[in-house]
Amino acid sequence: MHRPNSAEPSRRSLLRGGLGLGAAATAGLAADLWPAASARAATPAAARAATAVDYPSATWAPASTANYTASNRPSSYPIQMVVIHVTQETFADTISLFQDPAHAAAAHYVVRSADGAIDQCVREHDIAWHAGNWDYNTRSIGIEHEGWVDQPSYFTTAMYHSSAALTAAICDKYGIPKDRAHIIGHVQVPGTDHTDPGPNWDWVRYIRLVNGV
Fold this sequence. Notes:
The protein is α/β, with parallel strands linked by helices. It has eight helices and eight strands, in the order H-H-H-H-E-E-E-H-E-E-E-H-E-H-E-H. The strands form two sheets. The protein has a six-stranded mixed β-sheet with strand order 1-5-4-7-3-8, with helices on both faces. A hairpin with a 6-residue loop joins strand 4 and strand 5.
């Protein structure tokens, strides 16, 4: 999963930040799963849970409480950056893994490739274990994007626009500059061995969209 670092030497601590996912699937499979997600959102329980989301366009899909640290950000820690990830897994399987208490990792949001739909898995005031670096976890919001770093077809226009709108809203809320110093890839996190979002992620396009250009 992730290489240990001096700040968090234990296995449990190490997993408080990384996403080690691996499987093969197709974009068609992700699209086929949308009706099930719609049915879930239509249930009374899901309607009540919708009040938990921090971003109005998101659907609440809570991660296991074993996969993040409860907190009271930004009072406990300032929120200063957004970390962009790629799942290396399907959207549906990513949500399932975040809900597995044995997984020991989760991000705040997951964006689907086919239509840009967003699930929120961890509240923004809590510390998601997504970056593989405790300091970065405490100060960031993690956004996962369905797909594989070597398959650019997953990075759809719908995904870019939906994710950029989410990131813009987060930056506006917490006063985060909308630039590459504060909107970073997982690969830029010190101590991580991840390469996402990879060379196929169009950073110029993404930052322009975040800035409404």
